[in-house]
Amino acid sequence: MTRAAAIAAAVDTLASGRFKADLARRVAMPTVSREAAHAPDLQRYLDDELAPIFARMGFDQRQFRRDPAPGGFLLASRIEDPALPTVLMYGHGDVVTGVPEMWSAGLSPFELTERDGVWYGRGTADNKGQHSVNLAAIEAVLSVNGRLGFNLKFLMEMGEEYGSPGLADLVAENPEAFAADMLIASDGPRIGRLQPTIFLGARGGLNIHLEVVAREGYHHSGNWGGLLANPGVELAHAIAALIGPTGECLVPELTPGRIPADVQEALARCTIETSPGDPPLDPWWGAPGLSQAERVYGWSTLEVMEMECGNIAKPLYAIPPWARARLQLRHPVGVDTDAVLPAVRRTLDAAGFQRVRIVPATDAAFPASRSDLQNDWVRFASASLERTLGKPPVILPNLGGSLPNTIFTDTLGLPTIWVPHSYPGCGQHGADEHLPVSIVHEGLAMMAGLFWDLGHRA
Fold first, then answer.
1. Which of 133, 317, 380, 410 could form a disulfide with 443 if both were Cys (CB 3.0 to 4.6 A apart)?
2. Which contiguous run of DSSP H or E holds residue 219?
3. How far is the C-alpha of 176 from the C-alpha of 173, rounded, in Å?
4. Shortest CA distance to 306 belongs to which of 233, 235, 401, 395?
5. Do 183 and 303 sit in the same domain of this protein?
6. CATH code: domain of residue 224
7. CB neighbours of residue 54 within 10 Å
8. Phi and psi at residue 168, in whole multiples of 5°?
9. Helices (H), 327-367
10. Cα angle vertex 297, ends 295, 302, to 5°?
11. How many domains does the chain have?
12. How far is C-alpha 93 from the chain's CA centre?
C-alpha cells in the first residue's frame, strides 16, 4: 500500500458522499455550549458521535469533567509503540448559538445545506467540519496501512466557544495523559480561501469593559442640554484617547513594541487575499508603517466590539444617564497582559477621563503563543503538505484570532502546528456559516499525506 492510496481513500469519503453524511449528522446536533438547555447535546456528541468512531479505529478512551466547563472532555489514545513519536491532536465539538433569524432564506444553522459547492450550517467551519476532515484522514490511513506508524492522542472538548473553562486545569493535573512530542490541530482560518496554511500559535485575546455612569434617569435634552454632562460623549472621547482615527492602538503597553526579525521575514512572504463575498479591505486602516499581514498577525489591534448609550430603537430625546463599551485587544507574543489595564487607566486619567470606569470583564481571556518558526516539526509538516499539493503552504507565525494554544505550548511544552480547513470569509460566529467543498477536498488530501508521512519517517 502507498501514500497515494491513503490520500485516495481519504478523498473517496468525499466522492462517495460519506463525509457529507457524517458532517450533516454532526451539524444537526445543536451543541451550543453557552446555552444550558443544550448540555445534553454536548454529551451526546461525545457519546453517540465521537466515541463509536474512535472505538472503530482502535483507540482507548477516557472522558473527563471539570467545573465550570459546560461539557465534558474526551481523550482518545492509540499507542502503537511507546518508542514511536506521539502526536496530540485537538478539536472542539461545541458551537456558538444558531441565530436562525439572521440566516439567508432557505438556510438553517442546524441543517447542512449545499449550494454552489459550499456547505452551510453551524459548525461546518468551526469546528465540526475541521475535525471531521482529520478523523476521516486518520481512518483512511488506517484502512490502507493497518497502522499509523506513530502514537496518536486526540483531545476533544465541548466548551471552546465558552472560553475552554476547565481545560487548562485538566491538562495541568494530568500531564502524563496528554504527553506528546508535538500538537497537530485544525481550527481557525487559512490566510485565504486558495492558500493552504500552517500557523504556529495564536494572538491573545483580552476584553476591556468601559463605563460612564453620570446619574439616574434620562433628562430632556432641551431643558438640560449644556448643563448635564453626556456620558455618551465622554465615552466616545475616552475611546479616542485609546484608538486613533485610523484604528491605531495609541497605548504603547498594549503592543509588542517591535516585530521580531524571524516573524517579519515570515510575514513578508504573506499576502492577504480576499475571496468573493469577503468585505473589501481598508488599506488605510490600522497601525501605520506595517503591511496588512503584519497588522493582523504581528501587531496588536484594539477594537470596539459593542457600545451602548440610550435607545436608538425607542428614542427619548433625552440625555442618557450612562454609556458602556466593550473593547477587545488582540495581541501577539510580547505584550505583558498584567500591564494592560493599568496602562489603559493611566492613559484615560492623563486625558482627563477619570469618570470612565474600567469594569471587571467576565469574558474569558486567551494568552498569546507562538512556536519556533525554525522547529524541525514545522519543516517536516510543510514539506509533507508541499509534497501533496505541489506547492508550499503559507507559514504564519500565529493566527490573528485566539485559541487555547498556551495550554499546549506552555503547560505541555509542545511545538504546535495548526493546519486550518476554513477561510476568513466562512461566516463563523455569524449567519450563514459555511465551508467550501474544495477546502474539504484539499484538507483530506493534506492530512492523509501528513499522517502517512508521520508514520513513515526515515
1. 133
2. strand 219-220
3. 9
4. 235
5. no
6. 3.30.70.360
7. 20
8. -60, -45
9. 340-350
10. 55
11. 2
12. 13
